[in-house]
Amino acid sequence: MSNSPALARRLGTFDASLIGLGSMIGAGVFAAFTPAAAAAGSGLLAGLVVAAFVAFCNATSSAQLAAAYPTSGGTYIYGRERLGSWPGFLAGWGFVIGKTASAAAMAMTFAAYAAPQGWERPVAIAAVVILTAVNYHGVTRTAGLTRILVLAVLAALAIAIAATWGGSGPDFGNIVGEGLLAHGWYGILQSAGLLFFAFAGYARIATMGEEVREPRRTIPRAISIALGITIIIYVVIAVTLLAVLGPAGVADSPTPLADAVSAGSLAWAAPVVRIGAAVASLGALLALIAGLGRTSLAMAREHDLPHWLAAVHPKYKVPHHAELTLGVLICLVIAVADLRGAIGFSSFGVLLYYLVANIAAFTQPAEDRRYPKFLQVAGAAACVALVATLPPLSVGLGVLMFAVGGVFRLLRLRMRQA
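The structure corresponding to this sequence follows.
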């Protein structure tokens, strides 16, 4: 391991849980149910159960590993320590490249709700610049702003759901529609793949393990709290949307929660959903930038990325070179790319990331084991199954992405040996 300066341990269970919540309860909660309903109809409820189970398996692996290796980098470090340098590199590369695209998508989602027409890209870039500056000034600033954003989003969702159920009438018959299996198991698995990425933010807690107090106790507890609260919220939203709009209505609406509110007698609350979506996108973006910076720091420490990125700010104790570089890259993606397919592109990398995590957790010795091995086997198998549901273009881009990463690492290894 590198002798570069350590980060400061400043996060307790409450703040770590909020960072996980801010990562999970992001823009996906306002958008992911539409493609999930198109894929599975009412079967999205079964897809949600599958996604939650996969998330739980992956979360137990991440928590078990983070307790044993409480340092920045998440699965990149776990893969290196348990499986070797190449699996670790592939996990880290998939996370950095995939989540950079996701961060750009979050910024553009925020702008879609908050910016005047024609100003979406400049507003998205401005959001990245501001939130990168917040992260630059220390993890306690990040946690403080995340606390405000998460509470605002939860309040907006509570108002939206109350307004929906207070309207003229959710129809419980709509919930099952034509039946949970009307679109088949492939549709259910595809909806699970789409909904899974609304859960994936719990890994952000593990990637920030070097900044958590009492990590062996705090990280598993924070991951469990954040994931449990998120599952409850998503189940309530899924049932509400299906009861009000029905499966076809959810599938046809780009803003299903806003439409569900508008259908009730308290339609004045619909703008709250729009504000909530914008705030949720900011919360997810803030946590993404923080997690990306820590994983890049870990990879730079091991020379899998340029070592310049391993610098830690002497005052703020954050990986400032990594965060600034990533902020620039995210802005470049926003400026030139059409990000409607960003989720599919990043999905490939994220699923491989968790595949490595599950395999690494499976190899841990008895003294480090907190959960039974069958959860890691189930998590790894589920990651492979969900990859199979991705569109062919996403799989092709993912394979290309990892081929580029492999060539990049081979060249760096040769340069170091020369």
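Residues 215-252 form the longest helix (38 residues).
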